[in-house]
Specification:
204 residues, mainly alpha, Helix Hairpins, 2 domains, 11% strand
């Protein structure tokens, strides 16, 4: 059985960029619902017992067809949000001399170019979904996915993500997704992103 992970900070920790009410509803209601529906979907499939959500979603063709859509949607919702909470924190600025900083500059020329590409991808994601910084065979890529699809299902390792479903920002920013994306840069946990890079690099 999968469980809702605890937030690594208080609901108000990301204020004023992400408001406490949104964080509470997003975590306690939306994420919990994905966990509950995921557990219900896999309850009668012993082949998935004991597997991590990463293992389950790394090859969705192996999921029983009767529950595949529910597992992709709700398992992806659980995994994506679990990553999302961890890659945010107050007061952890980008360091161009860090391992992740050097890798980003090597790949995208400079931080502002990366930020622009990632932001445009997030704002331009049609409908609901996510924007990601991923590692694929040692190379950084900015990609987007619809709904609760995850890069793990297409062989890419997530390092950083932003949720651009309306429930992630509508209470504070209404329909102004671009304002939310711009504000979100203030709460990126660059230490966690580097940790994700180091873990991914050792396994690719």
């Amino acid at each position: 059985m999968f469980e809702l992970p605890k937030l690594p900070y208080t609901f108000s920790a990301l204020e004023p960029f992400i408001d406490a009410q949104t964080m509470e509803i997003h975590h306690d209601k939306h994420h919990q619902a994905y966990v509950d529906k995921l557990n219900a979907a896999i309850a009668n499939d012993p082949s998935l017992t004991g597997k991590t959500i990463e293992e389950i979603l790394s090859d969705t063709s192996k999921i029983n067809e009767d529950i595949r859509k529910a597992v992709i949607n709700n398992g992806g919702g659980h995994l994506n949000h679990s990553i999302f909470w961890e890659v945010m924190a107050p007061n952890i600025p980008f360091d161009q001399e860090s391992v992740i900083g050097k890798k980003i500059i090597e790949t995208f020329t400079d931080f502002e170019s990366f930020k622009e590409k990632f932001s445009n991808t997030a704002v331009g994601r049609f409908g609901s979904g996510w924007a990601w910084l991923t590692l694929d065979h040692g190379q950084l890529e900015v990609v987007d996915t619809p709904n609760q699809d995850t890069p793990i299902s297409i062989g890419k390792t997530p390092l950083l993500c932003i949720d651009v479903w309306e429930h992630a920002y509508y209470l504070k920013y209404q329909n102004k997704r671009a304002d939310y994306v711009q504000a979100w840069w203030n709460v990126v946990n660059w230490k966690k992103v580097e940790e994700n890079l180091n873990t991914a690099s050792s396994s690719q």
